[in-house]
C-alpha cells in the first residue's frame, strides 16, 4: 500500500530533463514491512538517460527502494510506503495512478532470469498482446528489433519457436531485458541482473547495460563495486543505521569512487566496511 503525500512539488531541486522535469526523484520516501521500517527518508534524483548504481551491503534496502519506483511494493503484503516518488511532474504514489501503465513506463529486470515457459518468440509477443499490440507483422518487427538490441537475434533467429527455458543463463537474462525493451519503457530498473550469471555471460550483459545509456534511464542494484565503477554515471550508497536503510551518499560515480564525502562511503569503497 502506498500512502500519498499531497505536496505541490518536491522539497529538493533535482536535475532537470529537456522538458524541465526530473526524470525520476524520491522525496522523503519511507517504507515499512508491517511494523519494521526498511527505508528512512530517502531523497534523491536520477537524471534522464543516466545509469545509476545503488550499492551497499545486503539488507540495507536497495531492492526495497527499487520496488518503490514502479510500485511493485503494492504486491507485497503488509508493505507500506510513505512519501513521494516523482516521475516528471506526477507523483506515482497518488492513489489514482494507473499502475499497469506505470510499469510499462518503468520496466523491471529481476536478479534471476525469469523467462516465461513459452517459446522465445512468445516471450516477447505475450506482453505486447497484453498491452493491445496484436498485429502479427508489427509484433514480428518488434521481436527482431529488441532481440537485435540485446545481441541475441543472431543466436536465436532460427529457433524462435523453441522454448525459452532451453537458453543459457546469459541468454535468458538478455531475453528478459529484450522483453522489457519491447514495451518501450522510459526507465529500466535492474535488481542485480548479473549476480546469477557466469563471468562471461555477466560481461555480455554488463556491456548491454552500458549500451542503454542515453536511450533509457537505468537504475541498477549491484554488489559488484567494480561493475558500478565501470558502467555507472551516478552512484548511491545505502547503509543500515538505527535498524533501517538510509541513503548515505549520492553523486557522480567519479566523485563517489575517487573523492567520497562521507566516511562510511570511503571505508566501504576501500573495503574497510561491509
From TrEMBL:
<dbReference type="Pfam" id="PF00005">
    <property type="entry name" value="ABC_tran"/>
</dbReference>
<dbReference type="InterPro" id="IPR005670">
    <property type="entry name" value="PstB-like"/>
</dbReference>
<dbReference type="GO" id="GO:0005524">
    <property type="term" value="F:ATP binding"/>
</dbReference>
<dbReference type="GO" id="GO:0035435">
    <property type="term" value="P:phosphate ion transmembrane transport"/>
</dbReference>
<dbReference type="InterPro" id="IPR003593">
    <property type="entry name" value="AAA+_ATPase"/>
</dbReference>
<dbReference type="GO" id="GO:0005315">
    <property type="term" value="F:phosphate transmembrane transporter activity"/>
</dbReference>
<dbReference type="GO" id="GO:0016020">
    <property type="term" value="C:membrane"/>
</dbReference>
<dbReference type="InterPro" id="IPR017871">
    <property type="entry name" value="ABC_transporter-like_CS"/>
</dbReference>
<protein>
    <submittedName>
        <fullName>Phosphate ABC transporter, PhoT family TC 3.A.1.7.1, ATP-binding protein</fullName>
    </submittedName>
</protein>
<keyword id="KW-0813">Transport</keyword>
<feature type="domain" description="ABC transporter">
    <location>
        <begin position="24"/>
        <end position="269"/>
    </location>
</feature>
<dbReference type="InterPro" id="IPR027417">
    <property type="entry name" value="P-loop_NTPase"/>
</dbReference>
<keyword id="KW-0547">Nucleotide-binding</keyword>
<dbReference type="GO" id="GO:0016887">
    <property type="term" value="F:ATP hydrolysis activity"/>
</dbReference>
<dbReference type="InterPro" id="IPR003439">
    <property type="entry name" value="ABC_transporter-like_ATP-bd"/>
</dbReference>
<keyword id="KW-0067">ATP-binding</keyword>
Amino acid at each position: 500500500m502506498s500512502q500519498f503525500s499531497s505536496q505541490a512539488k518536491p522539497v529538493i531541486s533535482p536535475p532537470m530533463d529537456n522538458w524541465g522535469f526530473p526524470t525520476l526523484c524520491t522525496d522523503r520516501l519511507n517504507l515499512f514491512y508491517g511494523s519494521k521500517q526498511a527505508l528512512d527518508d530517502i531523497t534523491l534524483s536520477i537524471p534522464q538517460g543516466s545509469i545509476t548504481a545503488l550499492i551497499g551491503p545486503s539488507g540495507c534496502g536497495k531492492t526495497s527502494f527499487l520496488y518503490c519506483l514502479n510500485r511493485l511494493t503494492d504486491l507485497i503484503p503488509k508493505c507500506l510506503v510513505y512519501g513521494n516518488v516523482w516521475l516528471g511532474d506526477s507523483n506515482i504514489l497518488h492513489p489514482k495512478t494507473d499502475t499497469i501503465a506505470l510499469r510499462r513506463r518503468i520496466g523491471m529486470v529481476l536478479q534471476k532470469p525469469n523467462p516465461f515457459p513459452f517459446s522465445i518468440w512468445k516471450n516477447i509477443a505475450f506482453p505486447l498482446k497484453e498491452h493491445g499490440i496484436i498485429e502479427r507483422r508489427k509484433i514480428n518487427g518488434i521481436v527482431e528489433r529488441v532481440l537485435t538490441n540485446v545481441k541475441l537475434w543472431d543466436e536465436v533467429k532460427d529457433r524462435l519457436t523453441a522454448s525459452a527455458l532451453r537458453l543459457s543463463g546469459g541468454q535468458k537474462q538478455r531475453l528478459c531485458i529484450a522483453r522489457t525493451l519491447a514495451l518501450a519503457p522510459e526507465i529500466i530498473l535492474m535488481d542485480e541482473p548479473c549476480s546469477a550469471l557466469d563471468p562471461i555471460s555477466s560481461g555480455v550483459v554488463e556491456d548491454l547495460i552500458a549500451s542503454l545509456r542515453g536511450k533509457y534511464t537505468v537504475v541498477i542494484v549491484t554488489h559488484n563495486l567494480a561493475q558500478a565503477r565501470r558502467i555507472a554515471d551516478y552512484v548511491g550508497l545505502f547503509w543500515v543505521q538505527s535498524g533501517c536503510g538510509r541513503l548515505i551518499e549520492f553523486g557522480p560515480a567519479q566523485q563517489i569512487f575517487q573523492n567520497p564525502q562521507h566516511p562510511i562511503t570511503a571505508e566501504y569503497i576501500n573495503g574497510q566496511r561491509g
